[in-house]
Amino acid sequence: MRKTSVGILGATGTVGQRFIQLMEGHPWFKVTALGASERSAGKSYKEAVAGRWKLSADIPEYARDMQVEECKSGMDCDLVFGALDSSVAGPIETEFAEEGYFVVSNSKNHRFDKNVPLMSAEVNPEHLALLERQKTRGKIITNSNCTIMGITITFKALMDAFGLEQAAVFSMQAISGAGYPGIPSLDILGNVVPFISGEEEKTETEPLKILGKLTENGIENADIKITAHCNRVPVTDGHTVCVSVKLRDEATVEEITRTMSRFKGEPQKLNLPSAPKKAIVVRKEPDRPQARLDLMTGRGMTTTVGRIREDNLLDFKYATLSHNTMRGAAGAALLNAELIKAKGLI
Ligand code: NAP
Among 3.40.50.150, 3.40.50.720, 3.40.640.10, 1.10.101.10, what is the CATH number of 4-145+330-342? Predict the structure, then answer.
């Protein structure tokens, strides 16, 4: 298979760095261009991220001396991964799509555009049919917000098996979710902040589009009521979310455990390079999942679930953990890109 040439917009940021790491030696994609702001443009990648490379392995060799450009079309690639600050991502991604690039974005700007799929590769691959309705030469697909990526996979498993009517969601979100430099240490060390701007709105609405039905008029949102409390906690990586759900049909803890453990999406069926073997791993220990212990399950692409039990208010409750910059951002975008390549859409 010929490798697709890709650019990374926002290559110097938290999510961009994860892309740089994940693309090393990728069998289907080759990074040929890096974009960031005018502050970084003109520098080599290693100069641009000097002092702010935050991953626990060195900058991959292939990227160190690549020159960072401004995010303007004309980049030497066919597909761009978007990891731009949302204050600038919208028009830049539109320009790239108009110029014929395939845009795979992490930013919120186009998530609710009528003809743009809001994708989670295991959950709604059929939404890729929306791409035919985009009028631009290139196309845009988006990932969801990092907090909902893991829980939406569990919702899909529950919805298909038992019907899902309501969910109450309580997040404990990692610091890296706010990008770099993010939250000042004095605000977060030894503390919990019960507010993340815009996060509860995204958590309550984005799953409805992802779990929605493809119709002639676009996506019909899933008929699920979600309420969310979003909190920032002093954890470096990994969003933990506690969930209570009300199901349409009767179920037992054992049936839910079995349903989640067996859940498979197209990435697993197609054996995509970044697909975890298991989309969901259910832990039986009473004190799991934990970010420190379970974050890298499935190379950071598996959603770990634990503490499935009955709920006094709704029907059942459980805890989930997913890696916010892997499964919730760069890894999810890469999986989406692998899916469109496997389907011959690029
Ligand atoms: P970040 O660390 O703040 O990085 C932002 C990136 O945008 C940097 O590469 C920066 O380049 C670039 N940028 C800023 N202003 C620009 C401009 N005017 N023109 C071109 N590039 C510009 O943010 P992040 O956490 O990686 O998040 C990136 C996107 O992914 C955001 O939309 C965010 O909401 C979304 N997201 C993040 C996470 C997460 O866990 N962090 C998860 C899911 C989705 P310079 O270095 O040159 O300034």
Answer: 3.40.50.720
- Domain ranges (residues) in the chain: 4-145+330-342, 146-323
pTM for the full model?
Answer: 0.97
Q: How far is CA 166 from CA 35, 62, 226, in A?
A: 41, 47, 6
Return left, alpha or beta for 34; rule: phi > 0 is left, psi -120 to 50 is alpha, else beta: beta
Return the sign of the alpha-carbon dihedral for residues 186, 56, 35, 40: positive
Q: What is the dihedral of CA 320, 323, 326, 330, to 10 degrees?
A: 80
* Distance from the alpha carbon of residue 259 to the mean position of ligand 1, in angstroms: 36
Cα–Cα distance for residue pair 68/276, rounded to 1 Å: 31
Atom of ligand 1 nearest to the CA of 15: 26
Q: Is 26 exposed, middle or buried (0-12, 13-18, 19+ CB in 10 A)?
A: middle
Distance (angstroms) between ligand 1 centre and the Cα of 80 equals: 14
Instruction: Give dist(CA 4, CA 154) in Å, integer.
Output: 32
The yes-or-no verdict on residue 182 having pLDDT over 90 is yes
Determine the residue of 39, 46, 47, 85 to mutate for testing ligand 1's pocket, defined as the one with the most ligand atoms within 8 A of the Cβ atom: 85
Q: Whose CA is nearest to atom 39 of ligand 1?
A: 177
CA 30 to each of CA 77, 78, 108, 310: distance values in angstroms, whole numbers, following the listed order: 9, 10, 25, 47
Rounded to whole angstroms, the maximal C-alpha distance in the chain is: 60
Q: Whose CA is nearest to atom 33 of ligand 1?
A: 107
pLDDT higher than 90, residue 73: no
Residues 146-323: name the CATH superfamily.
Answer: Dihydrodipicolinate Reductase; domain 2 (3.30.360.10)
> Residues with Cβ within 6 A of ligand 1?
10-16, 36-37, 39-40, 71, 83-86, 88-89, 106-107, 146, 176-177, 179-180, 324-325, 328-329
Residues in the chain: 346
Give nearest CA residue, ligand 1 atom 41: 177
Q: Quick one: pLDDT at residue 65?
A: 98
